Amino acid sequence: DTGVSQDPRHKITKRGQNVTFRCDPISEHNRLYWYRQTLGQGPEFLTYFQNEAQLEKSRLLSDRFSAERPKGSFSTLEIQRTEQGDSAMYLCASSISGGGETQYFGPGTRLLVL
Amino acid sequence: AQSVAQPEDQVNVAEGNPLTVKCTYSVSGNPYLFWYVQYPNRGLQFLLKYITGDNLVKGSYGFEAEFNKSQTSFHLKKPSALVSDSALYFCAVRDWNSGYSTLTFGKGTMLLVSP
Fold first, then answer.
1. Alpha carbon of residue B67 to chain centroid
2. B27-56 confidence digits (pLDDT tens)
3. Nearest to B100 among A56, A102, A104 (CB)
4. Average pLDDT over residues B17-33
5. Which neighbouring-strand residues pair with A78?
6. What percent of chain B has pLDDT over 90?
7. How far apart are CA B101 and CA B89, in angstroms?
8. For residues B53 and B57, what is the distance between their CA atoms, to the nearest angstrom?
9. Phi-psi region at B82: left, alpha or beta (left = phi > 0; alpha = psi -120 to 50)
10. What is the pLDDT of residues B72-110, one digit of tens each?
11. Residue B66 has what pLDDT?
């Protein structure tokens, strides 16, 4: 399978704990995106990278959230001091930069904060 | 700012009948428009996109969409629905004049195709 992969697929944690998610993009894709999706809503943009540079961050990305893409390949999204409101599906997508580029999504990581 | 509206939370259609899932958008410049489909507990799968050129775009699984600039719409259509088309459909827009690369998604429309 050469699609976008995410790990873990599910995560249950207690409020106040830190969690880290990983995304492996399609190998030749230089752009990588993180989105959050809550029940009944469409995906909401969090941040994106071109190669290893983080180019945009949403206002949704509070200071408890941090994302990295250290070698321009895989990316991690860390949430510190989780809150119940962080419960959501976290989606990763990748693309090749270009005007009408298509973003290809991974299966997502479903986070439940108790 | 860019935004997308999907006015119907749910669309019901009988198998074999044509289907339409509506989408309208708002951008300050010119749009790139996308349709994605999501099955339960899965990520989004790309269906089709409008970049430029012909207003009628054909995509995967027999779906097509028509770009209408005057009505700022990009409705998804299929001539004959299948039960297996039942899923959650998302329209998304990117303003290619904005310099931003991010997509803005609608809230989604649940399509239910009955046998």
1. 10
2. 888 899 999 999 987 789 999 999 988 999
3. A56
4. 94
5. A20, A66
6. 79
7. 21
8. 9
9. beta
10. 999 999 999 999 999 999 999 998 776 667 899 999 999
11. 96
Contacts of A6 in chain B (CB under 8 A): 43
Ranges of residues in chain A with a pLDDT under 50 are: none
Residues B65 and B92: beta-carbon distance below 8 Å: no
Report how many Cβ contacts below 8 Å link chain A to chain B: 61
- B-chain residues near A45 (CB < 8 A): 102-104
Which residues are registered as beta bridge partners of B90?
Answer: B36
Chain B within 8 Å of A56 (Cβ-Cβ)?
yes
- Averaged confidence pLDDT in chain B: 93
- The Cα A93–Cα B3 span in angstroms is 20
Mutation test of the interface with chain B: which of A97, A102, A111, choosing the one with the most B Cβ atoms within 10 A?
A: A102
Structure tokens at A113: 């904060």
Question: Chain B contact for A30, CB < 8 A?
Answer: no
Report the relative pairing of strands B44-50 and B104-105 from DSSP bridges: unpaired
* Interface residue A33 vs chain B (CB under 8 A): yes
- Residue A58: strand, helix, or coil: coil
Cβ-proximal residues to B56 (8 Å cutoff; 6+ apart), any chain: B64, B65, B66, B67
CA distance A45 to B7: 21
CB contact under 8 Å between A103 and B104, yes or no, is no
**Interchain CB distance below 8 Å, A99 and B49:** no
Q: Do the chains contact at A104 and B46, CB–CB below 8 Å? A: yes
